[in-house]
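Sanity check

After download, print the first record. It should look like this:
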Amino acid sequence: MAVKVLIPTPLQKFTGDQATIECEGGNIIEVLNALEQSFPGIKARLCDEQGNLRRFVNFYVNSEDIRFLNGAETALESGDEVSIVPAVAGG
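Expected structure tokens:
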């Protein structure tokens, strides 16, 4: 099932400057694995050494924060939009 992944500007160097990627995956984990297969090195920016999503990177499915859904196991349907948003801090 194809989903659209919105890639933030700092990670576009891994995707050949593409801001939007179509990839296959039934959940967030599968999408990340598909991204890594197509764009080696991107997953290390999104996941820690144990494969867990990094705390400072937020993921949204159709504008819903996956932390309030099923986290990395959040199910995806064809046509869904996955946004990857790095956290921003400031003061």
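If your output differs, re-run the checksum step. Summary of this record's structure: DSSP finds two helices and five strands in the chain.
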